Every structure is written in structure tokens, then in C-alpha cells.
């Protein structure tokens, strides 16, 4: 009996000790937390960063992050700021500018990643948002819903898409189906393979869904005509093309691909369905409409021509004299860039360039910068070119300030050390001494220097 009582008392005492230990542990944890809090206060007094106003702290974070135009990936800043300390985390979360852009390299499939993207965009508060997406063409339902929730703030959208376009994943149904995007100002869509709008309406609806759009780039995209008309153009044309009053820059294709002799452009036939009175910069790589149709586009768009910059690929079939018929109406054009596609006959290529230059005589009075890219200049008549530039500088028209003749290798070939005789270059050196900014040679190699 006595042993049983002793055992019971010992067990009771053990329980009391255990409870006391738990209480002491809680006290110890509380003391440690008080110590951390006190140290944090001390650091706030000692740390110059902590004494700065929140606005200055936020600006420092923005400067550390880099150029505001750069789109951070989810694994970069500002996520890294959250891992440093509580103070840095608080500053990062209180700086919505840090969260106003996001780059997603591959379109997410997992719901957890979509939730992460949603949280990121919410942290940017009411600020305009920039979004870069790269991946498969068909956007998931969750990704579409994410864009819809934030569409009122989406200002810049870049899509780099891979995959084939089919009737089931038509472009506008999976990109701007949840529109309109009333705040969208910049839209850039690039594709690895040729991509076709199923109908003209899809192309028109793409721009109509973004009435505030000021800059649009479509690379490697075409319209798949259901009814082919004369010369491969659709008939009939719409009675009333889309009037877009905000678009100032339109780029259809990327001329840099042509510099590498890769067929990678976008159809100029899209212009048949547009009226763009605010357009200042136009770039296209496939002049697959007639000169008359292009003049019609100009006439309805530019009653008071605002166009300042034109860049285009001059294909083998493009008539130089036809180009002159609409170039002469571009009285405000200051920058003209032409990439001359190689003719099957090298001497013919040279003649087409010189014919074009002579066609410019007496027109384009405001032209400031002329850039011509051509394929291999071995048989080019440089003396004739120099005479044209001299005449332009001494004539009644505003002289060029800048002239560039970029010479690129033929398809499949390369040269890194292009050379021309001094007697060929001498007239151009005189023009340079007279004040003309002139470049002859490879894009990275000016033979006059």
C-alpha cells in the first residue's frame, strides 16, 4: 500500500515538473521574442535605411531592380527582396511599382502557379501592368480568366507563341476573347511558325478590342483568305474599314530576319481593312497589295499626313515606279528604311536601287535619314550613288542628314571583311567632310572610318 502511494506521488510530481517546464519554455520563447523585437528596434535606430521615409526606401528598391521597362521573372527581384528580412519584405510589399510587370517564360498549367501570378498582379495595386507570355498558342482557361480579372490595368502585352493555329484554337478566341482591353497601349505578338488568322474579322477584332492601342507588332502572321480574288487579294473589300484613332506605330514583320535571308514577315494586306489617321511609324515586310490599294489606304488615313517613319522590304516583284506614285505624297516623311530583296540578276539588283534613288529626286522634301540594305555590293555603281547624294545636298530640297548603305552577304554566305577601293570611297568621304553622316559597308563596319 505504501509503495503504491509513493508511486502515485512521484507520478504527480513528474506531471507538475512537466507543466512547470512547459510554462518556463513559453516564458523563454516569449523572452526570446522580446529580445528579437528589442534588437529590431535597436537596428532601426542604427540602420540608416530603416530611418528613411518609405517613399525613399521604395525608390531605392526600384533603382536596385533595374530599368522599369525590364520585365522580371518570378525567380528574380522583387521576390528576392522578400527573403532578406522583415523590413525588406515590408518595403517590397508596400511598393506596388515592383510588381507592375511580370514575365512568364512558359504558360503555366498548374493552378498554384496561376494563383501565384494572380497574387503578383494584385500586389501592383491600381498601377498599369505589363505582361510577357511565352509558350504554347492555346491559353488555358485559368490564364484567360487571369487576364480578364486584370484587363482594366493591362497596358503592355507581349506574346511569343509556339504551336500551330487551328480552327479550335483561333487566335482571338484565346488571346482577346475576354476583351475589350480598354487600357492596352502596346501589343506585340510573335510566332515561331507562320500563323494565320482564320478570317479577316479576327484580325480586325484584335485591334477593335484595344481602342487605346498606340503600338502594335505582329510578326510572322497572315490572313488566310477564304475567297481569293484578283492577284490573290480578297474580294470584295469591306465597305467601311476599321477606324482606329490611337494607333501610332504598326509593325508587320521583322526586317532583321530578312537581313539573315529568312522568310519571316507579316502580310501588308491587313492594311486594306484599316483606317489609321494617327499613324506615324509603319513597317511591313510583305508588300502583297497593289500600289493602288496602298494609295487608297493612305488617302483615307492621312488627310493631313502624320507619317514620319516608313520601313519596308522591297521584294523582287515590287515596282519601283509604282512605289514612287505613293512616296511622293508622303511630304512629312523624315525616315525611310528599305531592304532590297536580291534579284536573280545581280546587275538588275543594282539598277533597281539606283532607279529607286533617282525616283526620290524631287519628292520627300522632309526626308532626314535614308537607309538602304542590299545584298553584296560587288557590282554596284557607287559613283552614280555619290552623284545622287551630292545633288540632293546641293539642290532645293532639304538635304539628307544621314545616309546608310548596309551590304549583307548572300543567302548562305558570309563575309566579315568587305573592302572597296579608295577611289570608290573618295566621293563619300568628301560628303562626310561636308557634314553628311554617311555609312557604306556592313552594318557593324563603316568603310569610311
TrEMBL record:
InterPro entries per UniProt: LRR_dom_sf
Protein name: F-box domain-containing protein
Originating organism: Favolaschia claudopus
Taxonomic lineage: Eukaryota, Fungi, Dikarya, Basidiomycota, Agaricomycotina
